[in-house]
Amino acid sequence: MDLSDLRIFSAVVREGGVTRAAERLHRVQSNVTTRIRQLEDELGVPLFLREGKRLHLAPAGRVLLDYADRLLSLAEEAQAAVQADTPRGQFRLGSMESTAAVRLPEPLTVYNQRYPEVSLELRTGNPTQLATAILAGDLDAAFVAEPIAEAKFDRVVAFDEEIVIVTGADHPPIGKATELPKTIIVFEHGCPHRRRLEEWYASRGELPERTIELASYHAMLGCVVAGMGAALVPKSVLSTFPEGKRLRIHDLPRGRSRLRTFLIWRRGTKSPKVEVMAQILREKGKVAEAGN
Fold this sequence. Notes:
Elements: H1 3-15, H2 18-25, H3 29-43, E1 48-51, E2 54-57, H4 59-82, E3 89-95, H5 97-103, H6 105-114, E4 118-124, H7 127-135, E5 141-145, E6 153-168, E7 183-186, H8 192-203, E8 210-213, H9 217-225, E9 231-234, E10 247-251, E11 258-266, H10 272-291
Parallel strand pairs: 3-4, 3-5, 7-8
Antiparallel strand pairs: 1-2, 5-11, 6-9, 6-10, 6-11
Helix pairs in contact: 1-2, 1-3, 1-4, 2-3, 6-10
């Protein structure tokens, strides 16, 4: 086996087939198919189950995928280790949507100004999706909210967010005796803000009667303004919403009102590109502390 074979194999799995893998790798389909066949012949086992033109990962393929991810990641780490400390090339960065919209413009601007030879690529998702992408080798690092799987990732604190519940402006203040909104407006499962909101309902001995899933904070806040339900968001997001005066902000109890965001990367594989981002975040943190 060589690394190019493993890279082709991994691409076929991740892209769900030969056609999309060939496009991603800038190869012709016949070449990808031939390399997969040669890898199977070399290993002496089928890596895919074939149903017409459809491919399904075989048991041996599932075993190989884990090793392929680790070997490719190790190869990238080795290449980074022997190169100069100055970051260069593509930096594949992931982020939660709220962080990308509100927190990242400043550090990404600093990064681009200092290292214009680095090509930044940004992907948004929830922490589970982003962590999985890092372990699969599809991202170099990502901004995710706690909790973090410490056994798998190294990390540095990036931002400390205040989180609040928002309702329509005509909703009464939410106190200990106040009935909670029947509907919550959230992202899909895996979102830490959704988890915190559901935990808060549970701590009050209540459950929402209805859950609406949306894909953006502005869509969520628009529904809140319309009186459709309540949402939990980072307070910093509200500064980007033009209809903020039509919202009512409700503070969470102490101990539930803060949520830290970390920059994470696969344990033991920090590259110069990741180190630079971590250093920019440390500098920003020191400036914030001096301002206080």
